[in-house]
Specification:
Layout lengths: L3 H4 L4 E2 L1 H7 L2 H13 L5 H17 L4 E5 L11 E3 L1 E3 L5 E3 L3 H5 E2 L19 E5 L5 E4 L2 E10 L8 H21 L8 E15 H4 L3 H6 L16 H4 L4 H16 L4 E6 L5 E6 L2 E2 H21 L2 E4 L12 E10 L12 H20 L1 H6 L4 H7 L11 E2 L2 H12 L23 H4 L7 E3 L4 E7 L4 H25 L3 H16 L11 H10 L8 H4 L6 H9 L5 H55 L6 H32 L4 H29 L10 H5 L4
Helix pairs in contact: 6-17, 10-11, 12-17, 12-18, 15-18, 17-18, 22-23, 22-24, 23-24
Bound molecules: adenosine-5'-diphosphate and magnesium ion.
Length: 698
């Protein structure tokens, strides 16, 4: 293997390549766009396109594509080749500035939630120069935003970029108040930890549920599950290690800073974490990472499952969104500083996050809501659907002291004056280990842990950036008016703690007692399912905030509402149909065949000698026959619910019916099928079991 320092980013048109291939003038102009969000000088585009083409063609690329993130949650690309006919009958490789800047994919095949009238099928993609172009296979991929011809965002990148801008604008206002005149830009950064399962491809191919839905819809608990924790602590198996090694190499070539990898709690479950980067780039990279995870798995005879809950009764997969905000000078605004001045500023930004999470709990919950993630958040699995913030005992004590104007217990016995006293040092490690909190402060960043493993991280970061921008805006409005900054600051921090401390919870988030306290005593939201939370996207306060910061227009919000509910309905309906299919065509025939074998055995025994005991065969055949009847009736019931749901014209009542009627019917069918699995001979069961799948990769 070539050295990593050499291959890292070798397929990325990054700053090193730009410097080497662009003229100084073009480079400076492009750099201004990238670093400061300045509008791109159109004359620059042609020069950049030419340099990109030469660089890409040299590396074997024959095509280019505008790579974008439609509202399906996966990435989309439409390939065009560089070739253009030459007068002599040959071809030349062409790529113009116009082609770099703008593309026109047919938008009609992507969900628009009503934004794109059917007569206007076109949409356009626009180059995002803040995320580097890269080569994947033989294609130069240009990260782009995707909009309708009316200018409405049809993707996840556009609102993400807008939310970053909103945060930048408001954070700069606050920093100016602290006397910082030199900072030009504030950006949010993310390091997403990605969980996934790896299973054997041959076994996968035998299960229609995995193929059609990404998760198992049947499967009895195996004799061994995750109770021994031996997988988590165990060595990585050779086949998995080979997979991880190749995955790292592929990601490094794409400039993705894949850093940590390890086994996770469940058997066959693993995790990959990159080094953090700007939210926008981290989002692109996470999409690419998920894609490469699946591609590389195929080369190793494996399948990478990114579903949130591929196996019932086994830990699900999530994504931890480590998030912070920093200035272009490299100052992390969520890092407690060394001086009283820095401390006060840190506390204000901390308050901004606390208030944002409290005021917009619903938006954060919505940002991670999918049918798949409901299996984690709505169930007895980490984290719960109730959002709260973990700060750690020490930081919590600091906030309590400020709120009460009382001495901080760890410090000198005087009350702490913000801007004059230094915060007591708190131990970073001590803050890090609450694994049950949905939103934990981990020393210099927050870790939002509710994301599902297959979610695009764009959604969560759009809401997080926007909500924090809103807190900062309120603070700047107030502080800009103040005659005495220090006094006003102290008052603002105190009143924020008082108003929003209900969202802070440092205990065990899995505890039933907490859910009761959170919802009853503290009045926090508990939206267990997608249909429970999505309607709140259109609540007046949410529409006001998101439109005021120009992150979404009202029409765009309505479209997200439609699409998220539509996706929920489609997902569960496909699962339900797959269940009915498997029950009728695989499970019932298998059970019937086995019952026939048992009863034939009884008949044969009887023909040999009437006194031969055949209690076992008879009893098993009886049990299984009863279960088969149960399966048949549960299947019939499921099918009738599916039919009923088809007739509901509106997406909200449809999703509620799915939650209230269809999912329970699926649950009932599963129970009888899983019971039958436990009574049926291994030789007859029609597809691999949980034991096979979870322990099949050696
Ligand atoms: P752990 O959560 O296991 O303690 P780390 O805290 O080192 O691990 O990092 C977890 C993730 O958080 C990594 O992706 C890392 O790059 C990211 N991270 C670290 N610092 C920041 C930061 N300031 N902003 C955003 N992400 C960060
Ligand atoms: Mg972590």
């Amino acid at each position: 293997m070539e050295s990593v320092t050499k291959t890292f980013g070798s397929m990325v048109f990054d700053d090193r390549v730009m410097k080497a291939t662009l003229s100084a003038k073009v480079y400076q102009s492009l750099k201004k766009t990238i670093d400061e969000g300045k509008e791109l000088d159109p004359t620059v585009a042609n020069a950049v396109a030419a340099a990109m083409r030469d660089w890409a063609v040299e590396r074997g690329a024959t095509h280019f594509t505008h790579w974008f993130q439609p509202l399906t949650g996966v990435t989309a690309e439409k390939h065009d080749s560089f070739i253009s006919p030459a007068p002599d009958g040959g071809v030349i490789m062409e790529f113009s500035g116009k082609e770099l800047i703008k593309g026109e994919p047919d938008a009609s095949s992507f969900p628009s939630g009503g934004l794109r009238a059917t007569f206007e099928a076109r949409g356009y993609t626009a180059w995002d120069p803040t995320s580097y172009a890269f080569i994947k296979g033989k294609t130069l991929c240009i990260p782009t935003a995707f909009c309708s011809y009316g200018g409405e965002a049809l993707d996840k990148k556009t609102p993400l970029l807008r939310s970053m801008e909103a945060l930048n604008v408001q954070a700069l206002r606050v920093l100016r108040l602290f006397g910082n005149t030199s900072v030009k830009r504030v950006t949010s950064s993310v390091g997403p930890e990605q969980e996934y399962f790896l299973i054997d491809r041959e076994l996968y191919n035998k299960r229609k549920d995995l193929i059609y839905t990404g998760r198992t819809l049947f499967g009895a608990k195996p004799p061994k599950g995750q109770e021994m924790d031996d997988h988590y602590f165990g060595a990585i198996k050779p086949r998995v290690a080979a997979y991880m090694e190749e995955l790292n190499e592929e990601l490094w070539k794409l400039g993705i800073l894949a850093k940590t990898e390890h086994n996770e709690v469940a058997p066959a479950q693993h995790e990959l974490a990159p080094i953090y980067s700007t939210t926008n780039i981290a989002t692109d990279h996470n999409q690419l990472t998920m894609e490469m995870m699946q591609k590389v798995a195929a080369r190793h005879g494996l399948v990478c499952l990114l579903h949130e809950k591929p196996f019932a009764g086994v830990n699900g997969s999530g994504k931890h969104n480590n998030w912070s905000i920093a200035t272009d000078a490299g100052q992390n605004l969520l890092s407690p500083g060394e001086t009283p001045h820095e401390n006060a500023q840190f506390l204000l930004f901390l308050c901004a996050v606390i208030q944002a999470v409290d005021d917009y709990q619903d938006l954060l919950r919505i940002s991670v809501a999918t049918a798949g993630n409901d299996h984690r958040l709505g169930a007895n699995e980490a984290p719960p659907a109730v959002i709260s913030i973990f700060l750690g005992d020490e930081l919590n004590a600091v906030l309590e002291a400020i709120e009460a104007d009382a001495p901080y217990r760890g410090a000198a016995k005087t009350t702490m004056k913000l801007g004059a006293d230094v915060l007591p040092k708190f131990n970073r490690d001590a803050t890090d280990r609450n694994r049950t909190s949905p939103f934990a402060f981990t020393g210099n960043k927050f870790e939002f842990r509710m994301l599902g493993s297959s979610n695009s991280i764009a959604c969560a970061n759009i809401m997080l950036n926007s909500a924090v921008a809103e807190s900062l805006k309120l603070y700047a409005d107030e502080l800009e008016k103040a005659s005495d900054f220090q006094t006003a600051l102290h008052r603002l921090i105190r009143s924020t703690i008082q108003a929003h401390k209900r969202i802070i919870f440092n205990g065990n988030g899995y505890d039933d007692a907490w859910i009761k306290e959170a919802t009853e005593a503290r009045g926090l939201c508990n939206y267990r399912t997608t249909p429970d939370c999505i309607p709140h996207l259109l609540d007046a306060k949410n529409v006001k905030m998101l439109t005021e910061h120009k992150v979404f227009s009202e029409a765009e919000l309505k479209s997200r509402y439609e699409i998220q509910l539509e996706n929920y309905c489609k997902t569960v309906l496909i699962e339900a149909r797959t269940m009915a299919d498997m029950a009728k065509k695989q499970i019932l025939p298998a059970v019937t065949a086995y019952v026939a074998e048992l009863t034939e055995a009884v008949a044969r025994k009887k023909s040999v000698g009437a006194d031969l005991p055949c209690g076992y065969e008879t009893e098993t055949a009886r049990k299984l026959s009863a279960l088969a009847d149960g399966i048949a009736s549960a299947t019939a019931e499921l099918e009738s619910v599916i039919l009923k749901i088809k007739d509901i014209p509106d997406v909200l009542p449809e999703s509620c019916e799915i939650r209230d009627t269809l999912l329970p019917a699926m649950g009932r069918l599963r129970v009888v099928c899983d019971a039958a699995e436990l009574e049926t001979a291994e030789t007859h069961w029609p597809f691999p079991t949980y034991g096979d799948l979870l322990f099949g990769v050696r």
